[in-house]
Design goal:
2 strands; Myb_DNA-bind_4; mainly alpha; ZSC20 protein
Length: about 130
């Protein structure tokens, strides 16, 4: 399968990316890691094993785009606009629901620092994944 930089991802390719992304160790490594080239090289190799020929840059770009689109739809739903939808929303919700959200907290000296809080976690749902 020929995959260029501008080639759109097929549904099967996105499903394969989501299956790799949904693995607990991958989710853990991706969260909060700024320099994540190595993780995406690993993801690209795993996708190759599944028959998807994408390089690490394409995987990272698709990851970022899916995450952005998911958050846009999630924000719209939380604001009462249920007309916004996206393919794979429920898959992404299952992956991203347990990701800690970075929030700003004011420090005594007036500067802000990032703190992490984990949303929607429960021992029963976490252990089933």
């Amino acid at each position: 399968m020929e995959s260029g930089a501008g080639k759109h991802w097929t549904e099967e390719e996105v499903k394969a990316l989501l299956s790799v992304w949904s693995e607990k160790n991958i989710r853990k490594q991706l969260h909060g890691t700024l320099r994540n080239k190595g993780i995406f090289i690993y993801i690209a190799k795993r996708l190759q094993e599944l028959g998807v020929c994408r390089d690490w840059k394409q995987c990272r770009a698709k990851y970022k785009n899916l995450k952005y689109e998911y958050r846009t739809v999630k924000y719209a739903h939380n604001s009462g606009d249920v007309s916004k939808t996206m393919k794979f929303f429920h898959d992404l919700d299952a992956i991203l629901r347990y990701e800690p959200v970075t929030q700003l907290a004011a420090e005594e000296n007036g500067r802000c620092s990032a703190t992490e809080t984990q949303l929607n976690t429960s021992p029963t749902t976490e252990s089933t994944q």
